[in-house]
Amino acid sequence: MLRRAVWALAGAALLCGACSDGLTGAGADEQVLTSLPTVTTDIATTSSSSTTTTTTTTTTTTTTTTTTTTLPPTAEGRLELIEEVWGDIAPKSVVASGAGLFFAQNMMYRHTITVYDSVGNLVKTISDTVNLADYGIDGYEGTHQGSPVEAVFTSDGKYAYVSNYQMYGDGFNRAGGDGCNLGGWDESFLYRVDTADLEIDQVIPVGAVPKFLAITPDDTYVLVTNWCTFDMSVVATATGEEVTRVDLGRHPRGIAVTRDGSKAYASVMGGSDIAIVDLSDFSIAWLRDVGRSPRHLVLSPEDDTLYATLNGEGTVIKIDLETGETVGRVATGNAPRSMAISTDGQSLYVVNYNSDTVSKVLTADMTEVQELPANDKPIGITYDPQTGNVWVSTYSGSLMIFADR
Length: 405
Description:
Shape: globular
Radius of gyration: 20 Å
Largest sheet: 5 strands, mixed
Strand content: over 45%
Oligomer: single chain
Strand order of the largest sheet: 1-4-33-32-31
């Protein structure tokens, strides 16, 4: 394992006035830090090497080259830490583009998005500072800062959409926080980043405290759960405008979209339900009483099974979507938060925030086959379909890369 000590995190403790320290209610475990994490740079460096066998098929035409990598079945592999990346970061999330880039969203603690290649080299640091007038947003003067929290990529990896927990600067005086009720909070924005030059090229108004994002497979809509307006913004990518909002209830969080783009599932952390949103007319049906505070959602490759982390119960559940029944359940570590699924659908990867661990769960029987130590406060996770590696972001200032082999 090669551990990269890039530089120490800068600055003393930074209090976030809009972030709740003593959270209450069903969303209490959706936690935002109130001070900067610290990192020690006196780190021993060791290295080891290993090889993962893949089968690659390349098809070439006169205009394009398509490369497909076939990975071993993930149920047969086990996670192994192969890399740690440290730096001036405090990543709430890390997201794979599917095309070799990884975006880490560093919230208001660094006001940056840091971009990496597939082996953890820093490609660019993107500031979240914008002049809203430059993007056609009227009514604001001077420059403003965001607080990047989550990201999603278009299907071709050409663009990333990034949610901003809140905005800082003139005109933003009532920021929502994790313990918010409905009531007059500042609304926020998405940034669109062009991955060719890694520049922000679009700013899109959404609700208050936007968190998770998903995109339809045809790239028509970006869906954003707004924590403090209790709804989901539907953004048309063609125009870069919000076309509607769907009321969901107290503290919506996770989103999963079916492969045919017909529906989206959205978890409501302030209760025990999961919404089923019809994306043709934005009507809603419900999966009721799935468990306390459902947070993160992923769908199986066949769209017949939905997996959810239950923040209020410390478990991960498996829901049969034909019957709507919970057909499997597993306890991982303390406070399972974000989750990723392998391309073959055989494995779930879960970060356990209070246990400082990452778990691997086999979907066939919902068995936890591994629980490995992670750096302090693991909060985000993503699966790289190109390599089969699993990336974990930790609030304490690091990214961890695990091979599953």
